[in-house]
Amino acid sequence: MARETRTDPEVETIWQDFHEHVNVTSEQLRSWLLTRGSGEETFPADPDLALPEPGRQILAVLGKRKVDLTRVDIDVMRAAVEGIDALLDERPPRGNAEDQWRHALLDLGHDPLRER
Question: What value does the CA radius of gyration of the chain take, rounded to a whole number of Å?
Fold first, then answer.
């Protein structure tokens, strides 16, 4: 018999919004964040610890099932959606050619070059 899972309507909404806005896979985001986090210093024993925020938090949420979300995860998802929307609303004149703008979106798990 299948187990019936019920979630709060707020969770359903933010889950859908988050996954529509975060349009890269967890592997792509992790790879991007590792690239962003690398610099003159070498990675610590656990490279995931050096991943920049909020990308690390977004990556953690991407690895969860909806039924396992915490209130903190929901806040991370909401902040990611709001951050992506704010950046998209402020598209620079050069658009996708503006590296700083595109990198800020990629840090949040959104690639503006990717089709929806």
Answer: 16
Which bin fits 113, alpha (ψ -120 to 50), beta or left (φ > 0)?
Answer: alpha
CA torsion 17→71→52→90, rounded to 10°? 40
In this structure, what are the phi and psi dihedrals at residue 87, rounded to the nearest 5 degrees? Answer: -65, -40
As a dihedral over the C-alpha atoms of residue 11, residue 14, residue 20, residue 22, rounded to 10 degrees, the angle is -100
Global confidence as pTM: 0.82
Q: Name 49's Cβ contacts closer than 8 Å, sequence gap at least 6.
A: none
What pLDDT digit, counting tens, does each position of 26-42 carry? 999 999 998 876 654 54
